[in-house]
């Protein structure tokens, strides 16, 4: 899917803010205006201490993630500070009896480590890019320093950190329903993006990726439904209908990216639908209304966890550049999904180096194996590798569109 360069709301300049330098072609992300660091009550951690952080405190007499019956992640707080928009990380850690946030770095941004649940998160002051359990995740609001202390927006604590720090790796998401829809992006007249020389198109590579992925999932005992198995155009609404008709448990849409006129941009991105009330980390055509809610927002927590798992697994098999788990609201193929659903951008066809890698069948096989590895974690089934031979194409499944 060709994406134009967007601007996250949290990165828009505020009145009176210093003007950020122009984007250069060798940068992965737009530059950020970072507020000057303020002194902390405790001194920064020495670099020699960064390689082996202390283990997190184990709390045995309380639930580390209390919940209301409604599923709200933040119950009634004992102090008013945690009801504010910007939550001090120290107060958040104190409430959950967690280790205090540690300042572990100064350049290029002051960086803080928080440890909770199953791992740790690195938060960078003035940057939306956080690293949660080893994977980059773009926050919808940048962490800030207030009074010398790091703070984070309450919605990012609820919707970004909590679902990933406290995810239960031992709990399979696919139990009784083992139907997965694999969506090969574009098709037919809708060619998607293309390589710089105009010889190869996204629609061909996404179909090949999907056809390689199907047998890997079927070997895990899963029922795989394809939105297309040959070069046909399938409207977005029809792709949603196919998943509804199949009663699928998961929906995974496969795409490739473009960043013209910035050919240096490359890497893997995985998208989930933006939760209501939050700005998107990627915006197309300047439209992003946080007041909107869609059927798929009922699965916000599972969407993020699925995106994080797939992103981590594909990075492991491809060693691609990590451009992070992101959120977007314009993705029509995700909005109407009544199940956890994500969209994976397997790389940039506009980047000459990455385009050559994507053209290699062995690399597309590794893309498929990465997604299959992530799904295997959800079902706890052994994964059987397949060869990199070109998968056979089958006839397109005929599915009746929904009644108008």
Topology overview:
Blueprint: E1 86-88, H1 89-95, E2 102-105, E3 111-116, E4 119-124, E5 129-132, E6 135-138, E7 144-146, E8 149-153, H2 154-165, E9 179-184, H3 202-218, E10 223-226, H4 236-246, E11 250-257, E12 268-273, H5 300-318, E13 322-328, H6 332-335, E14 341-348, H7 352-359, H8 361-379
Parallel strand pairs: 9-10, 9-11, 11-14, 12-13
Antiparallel strand pairs: 1-8, 2-3, 3-4, 4-5, 5-6, 7-8, 12-14
Describe what you observe in this structure.
- This protein has a 6-stranded mixed beta sheet with strand order 10-9-11-14-12-13, sandwiched between helices. A 5-stranded antiparallel beta sheet has the order 2-3-4-5-6. Strands 1-8-7 form a 3-stranded antiparallel beta sheet.
- Helix content is 24%, strand content 18%.
- The chain has 8 helices and 14 strands.
- The chain starts with 85 loop residues before the first strand and ends in a 25-residue tail after the last helix.
- The radius of gyration is 22 Å and the shape is globular.
- The chain has 2 domains: 101 residues, Copper amine oxidase-like, N-terminal domain (Copper Amine Oxidase, Chain A, domain 1); 201 residues, Zn-dependent exopeptidases (Aminopeptidase, 3-Layer(aba) Sandwich).
- The chain is of the alpha/beta class and 404 residues long.
């Amino acid at each position: 899917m060709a994406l134009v360069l967007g601007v996250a709301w949290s990165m828009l300049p505020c009145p009176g803010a210093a003007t950020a330098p122009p984007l250069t072609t060798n940068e992965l992300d737009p530059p950020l205006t970072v507020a000057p660091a303020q002194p902390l009550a405790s001194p920064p951690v020495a670099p020699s201490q960064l390689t082996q952080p202390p283990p997190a405190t184990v709390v045995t007499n309380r639930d580390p993630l209390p919940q209301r019956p409604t599923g709200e992640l933040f119950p009634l707080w004992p102090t008013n500070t945690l009801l504010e928009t910007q939550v001090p990380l120290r107060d958040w850690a104190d409430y959950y009896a967690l280790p205090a946030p540690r300042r572990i770095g100064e350049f290029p941004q002051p960086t803080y480590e928080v440890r909770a649940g199953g791992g740790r998160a690195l938060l960078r002051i003035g940057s939306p890019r956080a690293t949660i359990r080893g994977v980059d995740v773009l926050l919808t609001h940048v962490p800030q320093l207030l009074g010398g202390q790091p703070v984070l927006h309450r919605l990012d604590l609820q919707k970004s950190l909590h679902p990933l720090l406290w995810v239960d790796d031992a709990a399979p998401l696919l139990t009784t329903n083992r139907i997965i829809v694999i969506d090969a992006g574009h098709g037919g007249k809708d060619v998607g993006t293309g390589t710089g020389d105009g010889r190869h198109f996204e629609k061909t590579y996404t179909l090949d990726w999907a056809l390689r992925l199907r047998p890997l999932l079927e070997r895990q005992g899963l029922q795989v439904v394809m939105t297309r198995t040959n070069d046909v155009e399938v409207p977005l609404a029809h792709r949603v209908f196919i998943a509804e008709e199949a009663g699928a448990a998961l929906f995974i849409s496969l795409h490739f990216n473009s960043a013209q006129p910035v050919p240096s941009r490359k890497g893997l991105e995985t998208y989930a639908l933006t939760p209501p009330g939050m700005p998107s980390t990627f915006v197309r055509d300047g439209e992003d209304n946080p007041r909107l809610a869609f059927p798929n927002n009922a699965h916000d927590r599972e969407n993020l966890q699925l995106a994080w798992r797939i992103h981590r697994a594909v990075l492991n098999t491809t060693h691609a550049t990590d451009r992070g788990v992101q959120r977007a609201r314009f993705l029509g193929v995700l909005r109407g999904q009544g199940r956890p659903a994500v969209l994976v951008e397997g790389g940039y066809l506009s980047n000459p180096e990455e385009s050559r890698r994507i053209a290699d069948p062995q690399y597309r096989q590794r893309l498929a194996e990465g997604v299959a590895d992530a799904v295997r974690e959800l079902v706890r089934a052994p994964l059987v590798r397949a060869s990199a031979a070109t998968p056979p194409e089958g006839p397109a499944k005929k599915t009746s569109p929904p009644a108008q």
